[in-house]
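[stage:ingest] chain + small molecule (MRU)
[stage:ingest] validated
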Amino acid sequence: MAQTPPQKPSALSLERLPKSLELLKADDGQVVLRYVDQRQLPYELVQVSTASWQQVIDAIVTLAVRGAPALGVAGAAAFALWVCNDACFADKDALVCKARAVADEIANARPTAVNLSWGVTAAFQVFEEVLAQPEEQVKSACFDAVKELEAHDEACNRAIGAYGSALLPCAEGGATVLTHCNAGSLATVFYGTALGVIYTAAMDGNIARVYADETRPVGQGARLTAWELAQVGIPVTLICDNMAASLMAKGEIDAVVVGADRIAANGDTANKIGTLSVAIAAHTFGVPFYVAAPTSTIDVTLASGDEIPIEERASSEVLDPLYAGVDIYNPAFDVTPARFISGIITEKGVFSPASIAQAVGVS
Ligand code: MRU
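[stage:predict] done
[stage:export] tokens:
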């Protein structure tokens, strides 16, 4: 197998990763969201700026902006764009009514990652709290709320990285870790959750290599995870999804770390389609399987994973053009039962799936 030699931790180049999204004030006074158009990666790093909240919804629906924590901040930012650039403050009752409709439209852009509605709700609450104040102060408060969420996202990811790094087995020359989809810097504002664990472990001198599942049908592993790791300087091997189990059977994988889109009260976890197969293989071959996610991904209103809404996406993602006589089923996520999860790494510490509700103060 062709492999690039492991690099020293000091060679990590995190500065080569862009912030995946950032709310900014443009020179003309408009508020804009600058985001990486993830559909263009790995071949081109394209950053787009928009003042339009509807364009942010479009970016979310088309996966230009994706990944649960990034969706949370993007949702809040879309709402702030509406407040700052489009809202009409003349009639407060009409304003609140329209604000609710806008918030709902953004929150419903994609159904599975609970972070999206979490982010929109956070921005909407700030809006409601300051509504009695003059227009400019309402706008500033909404802008500042998004900037706080951006900073909070990175702080959570760095804490997740520290907790997760301490969990990885210490192998000679570093641990070999497998991941699925992209739970990296691109899927957050910066640093990543599952890849945050890997970045911190690499800086701690405990990563030999990462195997990235390509993650059919959209290829988040092939296009985004492998790209991120290569940018940063961590040895990465891209594999097709159907190769992960055989690597585990051969004892080549020390641990699996993945992200999450929604974690139910009993620890069942929705993540990118294919995660379930990886978890079953890890369980079968005795490989620890960790989920890394901020507490904004936990939804204690759902008792189990059976209640998590699973997005179904267009058939064209699987085969385009499709030919006559064939139907396509394209669920974007699956649910890994809690019993296959060794631990859930959050910014508040590591929890067993059964005790995950405690991470959000529910016992
Ligand atoms: O459809 P996507 O690309 O938004 O799905 C993303 C995932 O499933 C990620 O693994 C998950 O959101 C965790 S991101 C830190």
